[in-house]
Amino acid sequence: MKKPLSPIQLLKIKSFWKWFAQNEMQIIKAYVSATDEKSILKTLDRKLAYVSKRIGFFFEVQNANPVRLKLTISSKGYSKLFPKIEALVEHAPKLELWLFEALVKPHSDINKFKLGLDYNITYKGVPLKISKLYFSIEEVNYIRKELKIRVYLYNYDDCSDNPYVFEAIELCILDIIGEIYYRKNIAAFQVAQLPQNPKKLIPFYELLENVEYIRNINKRTNKTI
Predict the structure, then answer these.
(1) Is the pTM above the cut of 0.85?
(2) Which pLDDT value is given to residue 125?
(3) What distance in Å separates the CA atoms of residue 204 and residue 152, rounded to the nearest whole number?
(4) Any bridge partners for residue 87, and if so which?
(5) How far apart are CA 222 and CA 59, in angstroms?
(6) Which residues of 148-184 are buried (b: 16+ CB within 10 A; e: fewer)?
(7) What is the rounded CA–CA span in Å between residue 190 and residue 169?
(8) CA distance 63 to 86
(9) Other CB atoms within 10 A of residue 72 CB
């Protein structure tokens, strides 16, 4: 049985959605124009932080014409916040141009990434396209069922000085494997420049398959790859 929200928590959630509904078109315009510097997106971040400082969000285009966006509310795998996030989405308004989702779920269909049909996105000045990312497995802990990985960003040399690169890649990992697997099965990750010949690397969209493989192994050893 879910723990009921306190009056203060409910008030904060209702206040957030009231503001969101009043500013939905400005939020769409700010996201579609790929300008995270716009004050409306900063305000969105601040409004969510008022509900909980550990709650984050990201967008995904659901439809291009007319634009329809999905807003996913995330705790980056912090399980204590799951009930609050679920309650937040349960109180979301019905808006024609929006789909709201509680917690990041693993991608069930990776065909768009295989075909390179995913959208280019920009996260706080870091341009990204998941279908262009690769990774390597640096270490496997079979007892804890954890991976340490290195993610190869095709334009890392151009944006390595951006303080949000690590956060941007973290969100890409969340997008592929979901935040529950991220919390339980990714021990650490690094970011590096994608080499000219990525033949020995693994396409990033196959990360979920590798995580699920490790989760299903009962071998009781540690091994570095």
Answers:
(1) no
(2) 83
(3) 9
(4) none
(5) 37
(6) bbebbbbebeebeebeebeebbbbbbbbbbbbbbbeb
(7) 9
(8) 24
(9) 22
Walk across the sheet containing 67-74 and list its strands: 56-64, 67-74, 98-102
**Side chain identity at residue 2, one-letter code:** K
How far is C-alpha 134 from the chain's CA centre? 16
Which residues share a beta bridge with 140? 147, 223
Do the Cβ atoms of 182 and 146 come closer than 8 Å? no
Report the pLDDT value the prediction gives residue 223, as an integer from 0 to 100. 53
**pLDDT for 14:** 95
Q: What percent of the chain stands above pLDDT 70?
A: 93
pLDDT digits (tens, 9 = 90+) for 120-167: 887 778 889 999 999 999 999 999 999 999 999 999 999 999 998 998
CA pair distance 57, 124, nearest whole angstrom: 13
The helix (H) or strand (E) run that includes residue 190 is: strand 186-193
Distance CA 219, CA 217 (A): 6
Question: What pLDDT digit, counting tens, does each position of 79-121 carry?
Answer: 888 888 999 999 999 999 999 999 888 887 899 999 998 888 8
Length of the chain: 225
Residue 221 has pLDDT above 80, yes or no: no
Strands 98-102, 146-153: pairing is unpaired
The pairing of beta strand 98-102 with beta strand 121-123: unpaired
Q: What is the DSSP letter of 100?
A: E
Which residues have C-beta within 8 Å of that of residue 50, sequence separation ≥ 6? 12, 15, 16
